[in-house]
């Protein structure tokens, strides 16, 4: 009797192991077998298995994958987290509704500035051009709209669009700021010179004429006219908050608390 029970337990165990191996073989959403060949595209989140099925995967406490319902013959990664087939455009695993498949493309990341770990913009150089420490996402467009992280930001009415800095696009005379936590912002300001525009933070910007502030309290963009533009610079980071920075022109100093507010240098 004991031998019979032992044989039954052994058979059940072998059956469980065989079923697990079969599951891995047939449904590779548990462990995608082959990564898609991406050539020069910046993505490590789309995968395929040996049967030609496609998956979107991401890292949490463990790797997780979701099988995608896409046309296998035409599916391709565009860039970053964007992909498409002949019928639809995806950001990650989500379909972008009403996107124009034929004209959809990402905006090339030819940055002039990147955000460093203190949330300060710094000019691209040989050391940081491959590092974008605070990058929130990617801009894309089709013939009708501009998108950020798969969300429609604004109608595409522009002749010239360039990815100027991390999460910033300059489109003709407008500036578009992408944000993963809040609504993306489109800035149109009559005196802003986009040819000499540069960012300091997401709130302090400047051109050759003025230093500008974006107020999250009023949702408006305005110049700080009491600041000497040629002398304006970053001074320090307040100790109590590594993202609370002090800027000024030696006579007046500002920090950001939902708006640009005057402060002391120290």
Structure commentary:
The protein is 9% helix and 36% strand. The chain is mostly beta strands and 266 residues long. The protein has a 4-stranded antiparallel sheet, with no helix packed on it. Strands 5-6-7-8 form a 4-stranded antiparallel sheet, with no helix packed on it. A 4-stranded antiparallel sheet has the order 9-12-13-14, with no helix packed on it. Strand 6 (82-84) and strand 7 form a beta hairpin.
- The oligomeric status of these chains comes to single chain
Tell me the radius of gyration.
25 Å
Helix content: under 10%
Spatial order of strands in the largest sheet: 1-2-3-4
The portion of residues forming beta strands comes to: 35-45%
Number of strands: 26
Order of helix and strand elements from N to C terminus? HEEEEEEEEEEEEEEEEEEEEEEEEEE
Return the average pLDDT rounded to an integer: 81
Unreliable runs, pLDDT <50, ≥5 residues? none
Summarize the main sheet.
4 strands, antiparallel
What is the rounded distance between the termini?
Answer: 85 Å
């Amino acid at each position: 009797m004991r031998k019979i029970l032992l044989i039954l337990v052994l058979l059940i165990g072998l059956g469980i192991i065989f079923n697990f191996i079969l599951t891995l073989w047939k449904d590779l959403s548990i462990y995608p077998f082959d990564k898609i060949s991406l050539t020069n595209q910046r993505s490590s989140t789309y995968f395929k298995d040996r049967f030609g099925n496609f998956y979107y995967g991401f890292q949490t406490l463990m790797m997780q994958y979701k099988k995608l319902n896409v046309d296998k013959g035409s599916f391709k990664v565009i860039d970053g987290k964007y992909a498409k087939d002949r019928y639809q455009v995806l950001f990650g695993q989500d379909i972008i509704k009403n996107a124009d498949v034929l004209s959809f493309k990402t905006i090339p990341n030819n940055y002039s500035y990147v955000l460093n770990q203190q949330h300060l913009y710094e000019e691209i150089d040989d050391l940081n051009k491959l590092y974008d420490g605070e990058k929130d996402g990617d801009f894309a467009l089709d013939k009708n709209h501009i998108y950020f992280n798969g969300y429609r930001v604004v109608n595409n009415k522009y002749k010239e669009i360039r990815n100027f800095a991390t999460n910033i696009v300059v489109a003709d005379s407008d500036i578009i700021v992408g944000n993963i936590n809040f609504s993306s912002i489109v800035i149109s300001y009559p005196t802003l010179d986009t040819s000499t525009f540069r960012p300091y933070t997401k709130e302090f910007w400047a051109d050759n004429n003025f230093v500008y502030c974006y107020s999250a309290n009023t949702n408006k963009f305005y110049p700080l006219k009491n600041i000497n533009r040629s002398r304006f610079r970053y001074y320090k980071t307040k100790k109590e908050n590594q993202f609370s920075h002090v800027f000024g022109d030696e006579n007046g100093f500002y920090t950001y608390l939902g708006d640009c507010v005057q402060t002391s240098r120290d």
